[in-house]
């Protein structure tokens, strides 16, 4: 096999391999049809307390058991570059995906959500919610 044919073969094999791997990978949330997003930011009463932060994270994760919650992502402030447009004043974030508005409404009054508020609201000083509908 000459050099030109070998390069073409290796290039084609590489492209086919990447394509095969990409199609075998599980779909991400962005590829699923979850048109309602509920994004909540919590400011802790004791922002320096890792114990309070971890306790709130544990509580937020219980919300994943509500049947209408399709996916949940729980996060903390990333150590990214400091810029004027980045708000890193919050402590814990939850990002919840719903199939429809009815699912989000069910979540709001679900006993697990109400129990979460009752058991963990003493940890936060401020909460901001962004509800987003797919455009």
TrEMBL record:
Residues spanning the signal sequence: 1-24
Pfam families from the UniProt entry: Dabb
Keywords, alphabetical: Signal
Cited PROSITE patterns: S_R_A_B_BARREL
Membrane spanning residue stretches: none
Domain of life: Bacteria
InterPro entries, A to Z: Dabb (IPR013097), Dimeric_a/b-barrel (IPR011008)
The Stress-response A/B barrel domain, residue ranges: 36-132
Protein's recorded name: Stress-response A/B barrel domain-containing protein
Lineage: Bacteria, Pseudomonadati, Bacteroidota, Sphingobacteriia, Sphingobacteriales
